[in-house]
Amino acid sequence: MRLPDWQTRLHVSLDEIKAEPVQWAVCGATCLHLLQDSASAMTGRDIAGMARQALGPAPTDERSMLRYLVARGGVTGVIASVAAAAGFPEISPDDATEGDWAVTDDLQRLGRSSGEEAILRVTGGWAFRLPDLGIVCLPAHLVAPRAAWAVG
Description:
Elements: H1 6-19, H2 27-43, H3 47-55, H4 62-71, H5 74-86, E1 90-91, E2 101-104, E3 117-122, E4 125-130, E5 134-139, E6 147-149
Helix pairs in contact: 1-2, 3-5, 4-5
């Protein structure tokens, strides 16, 4: 369940995340970190702790991260596992509202080598993290998520 002031908490969380350095070596963990921190802010629950319980600790180097993702069904598998552990139901991407999680394949045009990206629904679009740019937002009509989860 989202807290009454979840929108304010979400925006503060995004501002804090924007200030953190992003390292490609742990991009998988960084992308999940965006979703976990935003959901924790909106719900007051320890989503990162739930992720560690469901998946084990996230790796700290690129090679280990790639093995970690492959073993867990890619970005979609990781996000689905964390969402299930947190009790966030899968929904149609068309029903996603601000603060909800999703996965897309659309970001390769931005130079991403990975085919999947974890994204966060924000007002008017989708937010995600790129190692060289930090948090980036794209208008909703430019991104077609293929799976989504309702946070709260």
